[in-house]
Design goal:
Helix content: 40-55%
Order of helices and strands: EEEHEEHEHHHEHEHEEHHH
Number of domains: 1
Shape: globular
Structural class: alpha/beta
Strand content: 15-25%
Largest sheet: 6 strands, mixed
CATH superfamily: P-loop containing nucleotide triphosphate hydrolases
Strand order of the largest sheet: 6-7-8-3-9-10
Number of strands: 10
Number of helices: 10
Length: about 250
């Protein structure tokens, strides 16, 4: 379990996160919603350790991780996939994944045949088999994102955080990614966190939703609780979009 308690983050004199508290449970898809500049990416980057935070505000399985390096957090099952592509563009699809087998602690005691079998299964599920030898730079946006998600899964995360995974991705790939996220949570008991502006797609798979506005959690809960919150409606959804999603998810 991941527990964040009264987390503050100040960057270059700007108070970005303001006493943020949340609880992330295994086996669930948790959504972060909010307008641009609300602090969602800053929150994810602080949790993974890319931004400094020296207060005892982040707990992973009852251990304070505030002083842990990003590498130690990853080794303990906390993984973050940023919006910007993090693939090695000059390496092939399989070469990008083989790096996980070479360097990640989980695979040190595993046979390469087991790794290759797992990769093959994910290639078949995501349609990447045909791109096996292609360089990452030649892939489409959807293919790149699916490759990054497969790489994340191969890291055997206990908590997987995805920042804008649907951005620049075609509808078919979005559907496939949604299915992967849901299966990670339900079948692998992974805590999956997704921050994205594609509200419709995110609400359709979220078990728990946190709305971040102005660096604060303004409301949390299921779809009904979120849609019933006046501040979220006024500051984020707007009347027309609120009406559309209410009809879609509450009727």
């Amino acid at each position: 379990m991941l527990l964040v308690t009264k987390l503050n983050q100040v960057i270059q004199g700007h108070h970005i996160l303001k006493s943020v508290s949340l609880s992330i449970q295994p086996g669930k898809v948790t959504a972060f919603l909010g307008p641009n500049g609300a602090g969602k990416t800053t929150l994810l980057r602080t949790i993974i350790g890319l931004l400094p935070n020296h207060q005892n505000t982040i707990m992973l399985n009852q251990n304070s991780i505030n002083m842990w390096s990003t590498c130690k957090r990853v080794a303990n099952g906390l993984v973050y996939l940023p919006q910007q592509t993090s693939l090695f563009q000059q390496l092939s699809v399989i070469e990008n994944l083989t790096l996980i087998y070479t360097y990640h602690p989980y695979w040190k005691e595993k046979k390469q045949s087991e790794f290759e079998s797992t990769v093959k299964q994910w290639f078949q599920k995501t349609g990447l088999t045909c791109a096996f030898e292609q360089k990452a730079q030649s892939l489409s946006g959807g293919q790149k994102r699916k490759l990054e998600v497969i790489r994340t899964i191969l890291m055997k995360p206990k908590i997987a955080m995805f920042d804008e995974p649907f951005a620049g991705v075609d509808p078919k790939s979005i559907y496939e990614l949604k299915e992967i996220f849901s299966n990670m949570a339900k079948q692998q008991n992974t805590a999956v966190i997704v921050s994205d502006h594609n509200v419709d797609q995110l609400l359709s798979i979220a078990d728990l939703i946190y709305v971040v506005i102005g660096g604060k959690i303004v409301t949390s809960g299921g779809i009904k609780e979120i849609l019933d919150d006046t501040k979220t409606k006024d500051a984020y959804f707007g009347n027309q979009f609120y009406t559309e999603i209410s009809q879609r998810f509450l009727n």
